[in-house]
């Protein structure tokens, strides 16, 4: 099914425990929604960025992962919320380190990214990224 943007704006939400399987489930969810909406050309960048943000929740926070997906004609925005009050600290990973590159990848692959404080008190914060829907297929 390909709706070719006929259902835009479109928003959906996914909640799950911050278990080891959460990054894969969120990647699959994002890829599926992008394909349905006709934005499959964004799937590689979107799933990698999603995986990095959800992996950070699994590694550094506990509780629930809240993924919010929003698509408009010009952009797709994905936000990942968690229960930790600790804000991320982007850094340059040394060549020998296995961790520390995720937020840099999100910055490099997205058309914008940032942090949201959750003012509702349900979860502590969210990290988001956006992709321009007019991106050329890589």
Which secondary structure elements does this structure contain, and how are they paired or packed?
Elements (H helix, E strand, L loop, with lengths): L9 E8 L4 H16 L5 H18 L3 E8 L3 E8 L19 H8 L2 E6 L7 E8 L6
Antiparallel strand pairs: 1-2, 2-3, 3-5, 4-5
Would you mind describing this structure in some detail?
This protein has 138 residues and is α+β, with helices and mostly antiparallel strands. The protein has a single domain (20-132), classed as 2-Layer Sandwich (Heat Shock Protein 90). It contains 3 helices and 5 strands. It has helices at residues 22-37, 43-60, 102-109; strands at 10-17, 64-71, 75-82, 112-117, 125-132. A 5-stranded antiparallel sheet has the order 1-2-3-5-4, covered by helices on one side. β2 and β3 (75-82) form a beta hairpin. α1 (22-37) runs antiparallel to α2 (43-60) and α2 (43-60) packs antiparallel against α3. The chain is globular, with a radius of gyration of 15 Å. Pfam families: HATPase_c_2. Residues 39-115 form the Histidine kinase/HSP90-like ATPase domain. GO terms for molecular function: ATP binding; protein serine/threonine kinase activity. This is ATP-binding protein. It comes from Actinacidiphila oryziradicis.
Key traits:
138 residues, ATP-binding, 3 helices, single chain, kinase, protein serine/threonine kinase activity, Heat Shock Protein 90, ATP-binding protein, alpha+beta
Short description:
This protein has 138 residues and is of the alpha+beta class.
């Amino acid at each position: 099914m390909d709706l070719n943007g006929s259902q835009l704006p479109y928003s959906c939400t996914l909640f799950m425990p911050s278990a080891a399987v959460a990054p894969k489930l969120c990647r699959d969810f994002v890829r599926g929604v992008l394909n349905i909406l006709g934005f499959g050309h964004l799937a590689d960048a979107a799933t990698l960025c999603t995986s990095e943000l959800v992996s950070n929740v699994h590694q550094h926070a506990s509780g629930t992962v809240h993924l919010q997906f929003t698509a408009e004609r010009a952009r797709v925005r994905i936000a990942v919320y968690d229960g930790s009050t600790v804000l991320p600290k982007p850094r340059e990973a040394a060549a020998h380190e296995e961790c520390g590159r995720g937020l840099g990848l999100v910055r490099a692959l997205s058309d914008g990214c940032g942090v949201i404080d959750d003012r509702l008190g349900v979860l502590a914060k969210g990290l988001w990224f956006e992709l321009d829907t007019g991106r050329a297929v890589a």
